[in-house]
Amino acid sequence: MYSGEFDKASLFAGGGFVPSQATAAPSSSFSISKDRNVRTLLPMTVKQINDISINDESGAYGDGVDSNTVTIVGLVCDIQDKEPQFVFLVDDGTGQVECTRWAHERLEFIEVNQIVRGMYVRVYGHLKSLQDKISLNAYSMRPVTDFNEITSHFIECIYVHMYNTKLRGGMITQPQMTNSTINTPSKDFQAIPSNQSSIDRWMSIDQIVLNFLRRPECLAINNGVHCNDIARQLNLPIDKLMEVLEYLNENSLVYTVDEVHYKSAVNA
C-alpha cells in the first residue's frame, strides 16, 4: 500500500492545499508582479498564523510557501457589530485571531447574522498585518455542522505543514524500521535509530507519543498526562521524551499548561 513511489501530494490534489512550485517562497530572482495573483488556500492553526512572516512587498510566507489565503476552524468567542464591519474573535485551541467580515449585500448579512458566540465556524480569508498584529480579512464564514470537520481540519494542517517542511524537495523516504521494540502494557512499538531522517522520526517515536496521548483514558485527564507517566508507559528516556513533546508542542499537536502535563491538541 505504501510503496516508495506513493505520491502523498495526490491526497489533496485539486483541493488547493498543497502548494505548487509557483507558490514557493521567492528567490532572489523572483518577480512579485508576475506571481502576485497566484494563490494557494492553506489550512492553518492560529499558532501557525501567528508564526507567519508578513511584509508589504511579498505578502505572507509560512513554511516557505505563499500563505496569504488561509482557512481556519475555531470557536467564536466574541463578536463586534460595527455594521457593515463585523469582527469575530475565533479561538481554535492554539490561539485567537480576529476575523473581519464586511457585509454590504443581503446574502452577506444573512451569512454573518447566523453566526453567534459559542459556535464553531469555518473561516476563509486573506491574512493582513497592522502594527505587528495579524488578523484575517474573511471573505466567507459558515457554521460547522459536522464536528468531524474540526478533527479533519487539524489533520489537514498537520499534513500540509509536514509536506511543506519535510516532504517537499525530494525528501520523501520510506521509513526503515529496526527489530528493536518499545514495550507498553498494550502493544509493542518499533523504536527508531538516532541517525534516521526527520521523516522517519515523525513516523515513529513522535507518532507513538501522539497516539498514546490520543487514547480515551489520556484525553479524559483534564490537565493532561504527566511526562513521567508517559515515559514510564512507553519505556522512553525522559530526556528523549521531553525532546519529542517539545517538538509536538511547537507544531501545535499537543499543549501543556505547566511544562510537565501534556495533552493532545487534536482530540482535546
Automatic annotation (TrEMBL):
Predominant subcellular localization, coarse grouping: nucleus
Compartment(s) where it occurs, according to its Swiss-Prot or TrEMBL record: Nucleus
Pfam families: RPA_C (PF08784), tRNA_anti-codon (PF01336)
Limits of the Replication protein A C-terminal domain: 161-259
Keywords: DNA damage, DNA recombination, DNA repair, DNA replication, DNA-binding, Nucleus
SUPFAM superfamilies per record: Nucleic acid-binding proteins, Winged helix' DNA-binding domain
Residue stretches making up the OB domain: 70-143
Protein's UniProt keywords contain DNA repair: yes
Similarity comment: family membership: Belongs to the replication factor A protein 2 family.
Protein name: Replication protein A 32 kDa subunit
